[in-house]
Amino acid sequence: MGIPYDMGSVMHYGPTAFSKDYKLFTIVTLNKGYQRTIGQREAPSFLDLALINRAYCSDKCSKLPCENGGYTHPRYCDRCLCPAGLGGPYCKENEPSKESSCGGVLKAAVFSNWTVISSPDYPKPFRKGQRCSWVIKGDPGTRLFVEFIEKFSMSCSETCEDYVEVKSGSDLRSTGMRYCCSAELPKSVIWADDNLLVIIFNAASDSGYFGFKARVQQYGESTRPFTAIGTTHEPTSMTTNLCKQIVEPAVPEWSVWSSWSTCSRECGACGLETRLRSCSGPSSLCQGESYQHRRCNAIPCIGRATCSDALFLDQPCSHNSMQICSSIDSKSRPCEFSSCCKPYEPVRGRCQLRQGFSGDTL
Predict the structure, then answer these.
(1) Is residue 108 part of a domain?
(2) Based on the domain organization, do 79 and 205 belong to the same domain?
(3) Whether the Cβ atoms of residue 175 and residue 37 lie closer than 8 Å to each other
(4) Residue 115: domain span
(5) Cross-referenced PROSITE patterns, in alphabetical order (predicted)?
(6) Which of 70, 74, 278, 320 has a 20 to 30 A CA-CA distance from 18?
């Protein structure tokens, strides 16, 4: 049906799907940028809805000249339904911002200048519900690239809930690479396939984190950047004397683990807390993992409901009868119940793994 594979589909399994302890990654994306995109349950993705609309609503409206992968809205025939991060009547603008005046349609700067974007109020903490998107364009025939600068601070979770999403491919319908863990940011720039980038910031929690800052530049024959991909000018002819210096290479080693993050859920062993460490050299030279997570807040969640008590009433079967007849009645009362997220269950005031699952009790 012409629908590409979508890492952000609400139907996609998460990174730890089918693992016995919900800790080890069982799905690893070929492009590391998508590792924390998979498994999102925020809402159906643009392509999830496109598949449904194509199957059931394709004949509702005449087609509009939608751009960037958008299509005519099957309910409102005078507008386009646009991929995440895009908006406007024909998907040529940015998605309207939420809870903040941020985002926009920008022209990518030319070397030696930069187009700089950041989360709202950076470096002050962002707020729950804020969402921004930037549509960044370059001149025809150029390519854009983006790199994160300064400090990056978001809640690092198994599947990103607070995130900055980079859509760098030529097909803007698909969910982009989502970043929420500072230790996993790309060490080099992220190249777009062409002269268009869409970047989305989404805040799902009030956590005290301050977000991100990034800069964008366009690259072409007449606009060659120096800082991002090295010097490009032709050297003049000259004679130099080269000296060879032998340096004993340092052995890369891990830093100490960071403190555990705030738990992402308040109860029921439903949430995760994470911690990170960094390698002093290329991460491939350090043995072990740079990221750990564990279940947290193992106190069962308390729910409230209305319970019914059965009452058995004995009385004479009829007037002056010696026989006793019983009837049943019920009485309602408020009651509480404890619950935990699967595969945990409440046991003596704690959430514990059910029998048959391996792992430690929280």
Answers:
(1) yes
(2) yes
(3) yes
(4) 32-219
(5) ASTACIN, CUB, TSP1
(6) 278
